[in-house]
From TrEMBL:
<dbReference type="InterPro" id="IPR036691">
    <property type="entry name" value="Endo/exonu/phosph_ase_sf"/>
</dbReference>
<feature type="active site" description="Proton acceptor">
    <location>
        <position position="248"/>
    </location>
</feature>
<comment type="similarity">
    <text>Belongs to the DNA repair enzymes AP/ExoA family.</text>
</comment>
<keyword id="KW-0460">Magnesium</keyword>
<keyword id="KW-0464">Manganese</keyword>
<feature type="site" description="Transition state stabilizer">
    <location>
        <position position="149"/>
    </location>
</feature>
<keyword id="KW-0378">Hydrolase</keyword>
<feature type="domain" description="Endonuclease/exonuclease/phosphatase">
    <location>
        <begin position="4"/>
        <end position="248"/>
    </location>
</feature>
<feature type="site" description="Interaction with DNA substrate">
    <location>
        <position position="248"/>
    </location>
</feature>
<dbReference type="GO" id="GO:0003677">
    <property type="term" value="F:DNA binding"/>
</dbReference>
<feature type="binding site">
    <location>
        <position position="7"/>
    </location>
    <ligand>
        <name>Mg(2+)</name>
    </ligand>
</feature>
<dbReference type="GO" id="GO:0008311">
    <property type="term" value="F:double-stranded DNA 3'-5' DNA exonuclease activity"/>
</dbReference>
<dbReference type="InterPro" id="IPR005135">
    <property type="entry name" value="Endo/exonuclease/phosphatase"/>
</dbReference>
<feature type="binding site">
    <location>
        <position position="247"/>
    </location>
    <ligand>
        <name>Mg(2+)</name>
    </ligand>
</feature>
<keyword id="KW-0479">Metal-binding</keyword>
<dbReference type="InterPro" id="IPR004808">
    <property type="entry name" value="AP_endonuc_1"/>
</dbReference>
<dbReference type="GO" id="GO:0004519">
    <property type="term" value="F:endonuclease activity"/>
</dbReference>
Length: 256
């Protein structure tokens, strides 16, 4: 079973690239982020025509997450996170597919630092961690996939100096991510590439793609039951270089 995390940076703008990816790679499950689409304008018909069922949690112009399943309809379990009732951002959706619980996550960016957006980011990480503990208690295969907007380690970026003042690399952001991992989750790309140097995002600005000036912010975390089935993990980097591509590359894990 191949499970993909893919921040599409606008599903309507990137729909040709997404359909191309589904056709060429035929992943079993795809977790999408940053749809920038309302529930009503989500392109369900196009995705279903490509052979995928879907559940989604949209928001006009911002955020938005979805889970696609090949030749199946994901069974939605949860949308949104508890702990902040006034939070209307569409950043979390969870479903069951083929006996695996999968979440698509779009964690807040948090810039500028300091400020209310950064404080919201840190609260959101804690809310995710609280729910993650409940998921672990189920003792089932669970995959938390998404754009975490956290660069976990210095070797997860092309330049520590360039990113040191960014919310993605602040000590508090990293600590929140590490506390989540400490619950018992496995960071699949880190397991596969322990020395780092693997990017999932390249900015559109300053020739970042051409210079390979990227960093790793898209993560797939596995519960212990899922980690026992880990076969491989990687980044489909070439898709970032295609015409009108997202600034993220599809990032994946393969489970036995």
């Amino acid at each position: 079973m191949r499970i993909v995390s893919y921040n599409v940076n606008g599903i309507k703008a990137r729909l040709p690239r997404l359909l191309e990816y589904l056709d060429e790679q035929a992943p079993d499950i795809v977790c999408l982020q940053e749809l920038k689409s309302s529930d009503e304008t989500f392109p369900e018909a196009d995705i279903r025509a490509a052979g995928y069922g879907a559940v989604w949690h949209g928001q006009k112009g911002f955020n938005g997450v979805a889970i696609l399943a090949r030749d199946a309809d994901p069974v939605e379990r949860k949308r949104g996170l508890a702990g902040e009732p006034e939070d209307e951002h569409s950043r979390y959706i969870e479903a069951e597919v083929g006996g695996v619980v999968v979440a698509s996550i779009y964690l807040p960016n948090g810039n500028p630092v300091p400020g209310p957006k950064f404080e919201y980011k840190l609260r959101w990480i804690e809310r995710l961690s609280a729910h993650a503990r409940d998921l672990l208690a189920e003792e089932r295969p669970v995959v938390l996939a998404g754009d975490y907007n956290v660069i976990p380690n210095d070797d997860d970026t092309f330049s520590v100096r360039a990113m040191e003042s960014d919310a993605l690399m602040q000590p508090e952001s990293r600590q929140g991510y590490r506390r989540l991992l400490a619950q018992g989750w496995t960071d699949t790309l880190r397991t596969r590439y322990p020395r780092g140097g693997v990017w999932t995002f390249w900015d559109y600005q300053a020739g970042a793609w051409q210079r390979d000036a990227g960093f790793r912010i898209d993560h797939l975390l596995l519960s212990p039951t899922a980690a026992d089935r880990l076969a491989d993990a990687g980044v489909d980097k070439d898709y970032r270089g295609r015409e009108k591509a997202s600034d993220h590359a599809p990032t994946w894990v393969s489970l036995r």
